[in-house]
Design a protein that fits this description.
The protein is α+β, with helices and mostly antiparallel strands and 804 residues long. It has 4 domains: 208 residues, Orthogonal Bundle (Penicillin binding protein transpeptidase fold); 216 residues, Beta-lactamase (3-Layer(aba) Sandwich); 61 residues, no CATH class; 94 residues, Immunoglobulin-like (Sandwich). 33% of the residues lie in helices and 17% in strands. It contains 23 helices and 24 strands.
């Protein structure tokens, strides 16, 4: 009998399919969980050094969504768990009891009144942005379990708090706390935290003047629940219920808008995804500095000076304490207050003069008291002038710096060579010298280049750090001292390594010490009747600067602890009368310095000094004819400076009244004296301000001096100069004033142009003439027969251009 094969049951056929489906679900469960749950753009946020919110920018999708914070206040944890998921710590992503309760409630109400979603499920829903369907609910349940396997409970709460909607365009607890209560979450009360905890469930409840009763009820119900759970006592809950609910969202703090914009720009350039930083800024100081800038700007606006910026650095840590890139008035576009003047290249005025002084000390070109010529100067058509249009004849280098005299600075740069100074500026960290040195020439020292506040403050901070580290590093140098300041609390490795230390630096300790001493002697505004109290209570090395055309006013101050840089002007480059460093920037500088703690002054780098005997009158190394000598502490390179060129041995007759030579006086009867003798032009101006200066005695009648005794010198023009004849307003040809000087008073000087006599002068040797275009020879002859000959070329200005 043929046996029939039994038929397989339909359940047997379905079993392999079920297994396959389960395997597929398991595979999806294990593999498909996204690495980054939330990819929505976040706001850029800058915090102060203690975590205070300084500034934030709305995210690119128009939402106030802060990057996730590292911690969550316990109050919010307790509130959100009590309101949304009371068994949060006891389930693995899905609360079966809550889900069953939700199904019963929905069936009874014949509509959806409860979803039964846990916080973990809500995190998944917020990350996926899918419509609410039964299928999506199942997916959320599966992924919630997967989420629990990948994250801790606290991490899940943090994800929820950072991405939950809180009404309007506010996402996340941090943003909500600031938008609705104006404070960071950890400072919120129970009533305020309960209010925020109920919002993600119904974010539309927050509308000024609307839904306030419903919002209050939901908050109060949550407070009652906290009492039942013994989280909050009844009295505290009653007090919390009396608190006001939020109304219109508050504006976020905006205390560092320009640093925020810089942070955004740099993060994008570096392709860094982190949108939140803990900065090094002192929030209180940042606000005080902003108020100081605002107060001064309100006064300066009467003169159409619209913009002010300030930067305060911590010397010890190399960090930024205050970053005020401008006053900030976005509602007035004409002010251009969005421009970050800390990063904007501007003419530095005289603020580079201390750097030239320091480098000349460091390289052995000058000593602090070396006399520098301050006389009418013209170099290849470039004729610098002092601010007061006067001349001192000769002035010690440190005094020339403290008084910010332009002519001595230019002559010092001519001696040092502008190419060498250009290279030193780059080495010290000035990064805006984009043209070759010849492009700037000697104007480099008077603001002929461009620098940023950031670079300028960095250089002075580097000098201060170098001096501070003298004892720490036993006289050696840390190559990191001139590193750029940092504004984030993320530490960089600047530890001192003995193997990386340097024996030399850009500028040595002694040169920096002497430079800061000279800067401390700058004429303070207190000497003009202002801020007298400051001058007696604080030590500050400082310098002002004013750019050509009164476009930029600078002031920079240095102490062992801080560097303060201030800029005042107009972002569009418009110059204004009175816009000078001393008048508009220095007052701001001193007001900021008053906000900083007073500390000790720099410690002298004693072991690095070299004792040099100098001539007290000239400031040069003492020569054999110097009579008044003093010992001075200088840079080691000071030994390379020249011997005093101004003290000379002169020979007098037996009365001591006349100079004599062996042609007219017996050597036995001669008296020999050391005499301080400046060149004629320097002498002419020097003795006006120095009454103690003694003129050389005249020669005994019948005696003749040698070439070293020339008493006549041309002030303007110099030999081989190019002279331009001005055009008068009526279009006629004008005249140029030629001037000279003679060492002997009341001596007559006879002027000859191209061998033709034109005039004679006495005492004041000046003559206005109008030579025709071309090459000329000017000859001056005094009544003793001394001759001075110079050649010059005359060019006419374009008359039409001048008249227009």
């Amino acid at each position: 009998m043929k046996r029939t094969k039994p038929k397989a049951s339909r359940y047997g056929k379905l079993l392999p399919l079920t297994d396959l489906a389960c395997l597929l679900v398991l595979l999806i469960f294990l593999v498909s969980f996204p690495k980054d749950l939330f990819k929505s753009p976040t706001s850029y946020v800058i915090e102060g050094s203690k975590g205070e919110l300084l500034s934030a920018a709305i995210a690119s999708d128009g939402q106030w969504r802060f990057p996730a914070s590292d911690s969550l206040p316990d109050k919010f944890k307790q509130c959100i768990i009590a309101f949304e998921d009371k068994r949060f710590y006891n389930h693995a992503g899905v609360d079966v009891l809550a889900f069953g309760r939700a199904i019963r409630q929905n069936l009874k109400a014949k509509t959806v009144v409860s979803g039964g979603s846990t916080i973990s499920m809500q995190v998944i829903r917020l990350s996926r942005h899918k419509k609410r369907t039964v299928f999506q609910k199942i997916v959320e349940m599966v992924m919630a379990v997967r989420l629990e396997l990948s994250y801790s409970k606290d991490e899940i709460l943090n994800l929820y708090a950072s991405n939950a909607p809180f009404g309007s365009n506010v996402v996340g607890l941090d943003a909500a706390s600031w938008r609705y209560f104006g404070r960071e979450p950890k400072t919120l009360s129970w009533g305020e935290m309960a209010t925020l905890a109920v919002l993600p469930n119904s974010p539309s409840l927050v509308h000024p003047g609307k839904n306030s009763i419903r919002l209050i009820k939901k908050r109060n119900d949550l407070l009652d629940k906290l009492v039942i759970l013994n989280i909050l006592d009844r009295a505290s809950a009653q007090l919390a219920k009396l608190e006001q609910i939020p109304g219109k969202p508050l504006p976020l703090p905006n205390k560092a808008p320009h640093l925020l914009n810089r942070f955004k720009t740099e993060q994008v350039a570096l392709k860094v995804e982190s949108n939140r930083i803990r900065s090094t800024l002192n929030a209180e100081l940042q606000e005080r500095v902003a108020n100081i800038l605002r107060r001064h700007q309100n006064r300066y606006r009467a003169n159409d000076i619209n913009n002010i910026a300030a930067l305060v650095l911590d010397v010890k840590n190399g960090t930024v304490l205050s970053y005020a890139g401008n006053i900030y008035e976005p509602g007035d576009p004409e002010l251009q207050s969005h421009v970050d003047m800390i990063r904007a290249p501007r003419s530095p005025g005289s603020t580079l003069k201390p750097l030239l002084y320091a480098n000349m000390l460091n390289d052995g070109f000058i000593l602090p008291k070396t006399l520098v010529a301050d006389i009418p100067t013209q170099i290849a058509g470039y004729a610098p002038q002092n601010y007061d249009l006067g001349y001192d004849g000769a002035i010690p280098a440190d005094k020339a710096l403290s008084r910010s005299l332009n002519i001595p600075a230019v002559r010092m740069l001519q001696q040092y060579k502008y190419q060498r100074f250009y290279d030193k500026l780059k080495q010290m960290g000035i990064g805006t010298l984009s043209n070759p040195a010849d492009h700037y020439g000697l104007s480099l020292i008077l603001g002929g280049s461009e620098v940023t506040m950031w670079d300028l403050a960095k250089v002075y901070m580097g000098m201060a750090r170098t001096l501070n580290h003298f004892n720490d590093y036993r006289g050696r140098y840390n190559p990191h001292d001139y590193d750029a300041p940092i504004y984030t609390t993320k530490k960089r490795d600047t530890r001192f390594d003995q193997h990386q230390s340097q024996i030399t630096s850009v500028v040595d300790h002694a040169a920096i010490w002497n430079t800061f001493n000279a800067m401390e002697e700058v004429m303070r505004p207190g000497e003009e009747g202002l801020w007298e109290q400051f001058t007696s209570s604080r030590r500050l090395a400082w310098k002002t600067g004013t750019s050509f055309g009164f476009r930029d006013g600078w002031a920079i101050g240095v102490t062992p602890n801080h560097v303060i840089c201030v800029w005042v002007g107009n972002a569009d480059g418009e110059g204004r009368p009175g816009l000078t460093g001393i008048d508009v920037a220095a007052p701001v500088l001193f007001d900021i310095v008053k906000q900083l703690p007073n500390g000790k002054w720099f410690t002298a780098p004693a072991n690095t000094f070299k004792r040099i005997i100098i001539c007290k009158e000239s400031g040069y190394k003492a020569g054999q004819y110097c009579t008044d000598k003093v010992e001075q502490l200088n840079s080691p390179a000071g030994n390379k400076t020249t011997i005093c060129p101004y003290h000379k041995l002169i020979h007098l007759d037996k009365t001591g009244s006349y100079r004599a030579t062996d042609q007219c006086e017996s050597i036995v009867n001669m008296m020999h004296r050391s005499w301080f003798v400046l060149p004629p032009t320097m002498e002419f101006y020097y003795k006006i301000k120095n009454s103690s200066y003694k003129d050389l005695p005249p020669f005994l009648p019948g005696c003749e001096g040698d070439e070293l005794d020339k008493g006549m010198e041309m002030i303007y023009p110099k030999n081989n100069a190019v002279v331009y004849i001005p055009i008068e307003l009526d279009g006629s040809r004008g005249k140029v004033v030629f001037s000279g000087t003679h060492r002997v008073a009341k001596t007559k000087v006879f002027w000859h142009l191209d061998q033709e006599f034109i005039a004679a002068t006495e005492n004041y040797h000046q003559l206005a003439i109008s030579p025709p275009p071309g090459d000329h020879v000017l000859t001056l002859v005094d009544e003793l027969g001394e001759r001075l000959v110079l050649r010059f070329r005359v060019l006419d200005r374009d008359r039409k251009k001048t008249i227009q």
